[in-house]
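The material for today's practical consists of a large collection of protein records. Read left to right, the backbone structure tokens trace the chain's path through space. An example says more than a description, so a record of this kind follows:
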Amino acid sequence: MRHSILAGGKRIRPVLAIAACQLVGGAAAAATPVACAVEMIHTASFIHDDMPCMDDDALRRGRPSNHVVFGEATALLAGDALLALAFEHVARGSTAAGVPADRTLRAVLELGSAGGPGGIAAGQVADMQGEGDPSARLPAMKYILVHKAARLVEAAAVSGAVVGGAGDADAERVRRYAHFLGILGQVVDDVLDVTATSEQLGKTAGKDAAAGKATYPRLLGLEGARAYAGELLAKAEAELDGFDAAPGSIWLYGLSCGL
């Protein structure tokens, strides 16, 4: 578990949870348990994704994948354990931080929905089924990205906002921001898979193309994918316009531009 979760990475989802909490006037400490939990869920998903039965990748975050180091059985269990620990940590940590129980429960519901058949699991199944399919189109690819990538980004932001005290309207604006951001992140990843090296990415470059996966550069062309990324960035930032220029707002603008 430590091998994968302490391997580095951009930590976009945890930063997003804390920034969304601050955006609505909450203290960063209130969102720390959610931030840790969402990174555990994300890490569990890529431990499983990298296994030979799925994406079969030997490199993650510049280090050998979990199953390469510890074997497939241990990697499978490490991912399962991180999923369980995520929810235990939200429950214990949020209570210790003084987050009201009803808000903790809403955060748990968001994270659980993002990790299961309404999120990552469904997206991964669709992704595997679509490999090598020359008839793949944008609607099918968007389904994969919304479930496999954007849904957990949404959950991170909404959970952070909720434990920070957000009302329903603000939480939904944060959700829309994160939805666009989640798709943007995947479009950028697709572009980098074509244009960057394995050393720059910390994972195997060109693997999506080799597997025949539907990607934005494949369906829109490289320049078309870059243009779409610009549209998503504008839509994401528009959702922040109504918030005060609080620390969380600054973080969120910086996060979207950093992609």
